[in-house]
TrEMBL record:
Its EC number is 3.4.19.12. This is Ubiquitin carboxyl-terminal hydrolase MINDY. Residues 1-159 form the Deubiquitinating enzyme MINDY-3/4 conserved domain. Belongs to the MINDY deubiquitinase family. FAM188 subfamily. It comes from the Eukaryota.
Amino acid sequence: FSREWAAARFRFHPPHSHLAYGLQAGQGGTRAILAAVQAHVITYLLFTRETECTHLERLRRVGRCEQGQALATALAETLWAAGGGGRAVVCLVTSPVTMMPREGCRADRFTERIRLFEFSEKAAAQGFISDHINCFKGEGSHGVILFLYSLLFSRTLER
């Protein structure tokens, strides 16, 4: 992965600002993934969460906690759909290397540390993602790459 991909994460605009509902996107290839997740974030904020505000006010009154919940819901919905509505796989980075690359493959010190967590219930996947949301949005987390791996494993390599 390029430096751009390695640095990509799910980062919102400041809470309670006019763009608090929006993910910040850098240049290049990660923008497509961020745009797809952004659509689910807006859907959650407008139509799913309970609030007494009008639709436009719902987007302007988003705090840090709501940003995290919207992101967790968006990631879980996307992974669940990729898994055909029957499973979701969430990839997180562990500290020690969990796998050594095969002969002829180059180690990147990231992929070797990924651990898979499989869920057969969407609510369980969403709760797990919510508990580990900083793994996708924290500085240096490789959050977009983790999500891309999660999509691939949720969909399965055969499909």
